[in-house]
Amino acid sequence: MHPDSRKSSEEGLLARSRSGAPLGARTAVYPGSFDPITKGHVEIIQRALRLFDRVIVAIGQHPTKKGYFPIEERQQLIDACIADYPRAESAFFKGLMVNFCLDVGARAIIRGLRPMGDFEPEYQMGLANRDIAPNIETVFLIPRPTQQFISSSLIREIAHHGGQFERYVPKPVAEAMRARLAAKR
């Protein structure tokens, strides 16, 4: 093999996507509203990064619900919370999650499972996604017991009633929520 051809071949293997992940990387999408992102969400992202080369935190917006944080601010908060994980990135999506996965070349959809009734609807959604896009796997990750009861809606409710929500969210989220609460007063 000519030395120059080996060099170009190695450069091809080292090619990177815009996110810095190697081209052809095993990509997973972690979808949700993340309104706001919690410490439980961050734990799932960390664990997904052990399994995949690249994790896209995909922010969806419910078509009829107004979010606590505008979607752009949610993305800024997510980016601040995943800044230490260069193989994680955030993105918006509309429509079917499997279509977004196909667009970004994802091989898997990451879902966190909590014990409070998550399994049945997640199972149904996983089956539907598999029917629509058989090459995309759904991977369920179970958070630590201390994170299992936490949800974004619970955190919003605790904050609304003046409770101590800070221990459930990353620091950037706690700061943004305190600022939002102060502005409402």
Describe the structure.
The protein has 185 residues and is α/β, with parallel strands linked by helices. It has one domain: Rossmann fold, CATH 3.40.50. Helix content is 43%, strand content 16%. It has a five-stranded parallel sheet, with helices on both faces. The relative contact order is 0.17. The model is unreliable at 1-19 (pLDDT under 50).
Essential attributes:
43% helix, globular, 185 residues, five-stranded parallel sheet, disordered N terminus, 7 helices, Rossmann fold
Radius of gyration: 19 Å
Oligomeric status? single chain
Shape designation: globular
Spatial sequence of strands, sheet with the most strands: 3-2-1-4-5
CATH superfamily placement: HUPs
What integer is the average pLDDT?
86
Structural category is alpha/beta
- For the record, the count of structural domains works out to 1
Please identify the top-level CATH class.
Alpha Beta
CATH fold field value: Rossmann fold
Please give the share of residues in helix. Answer: 40-55%
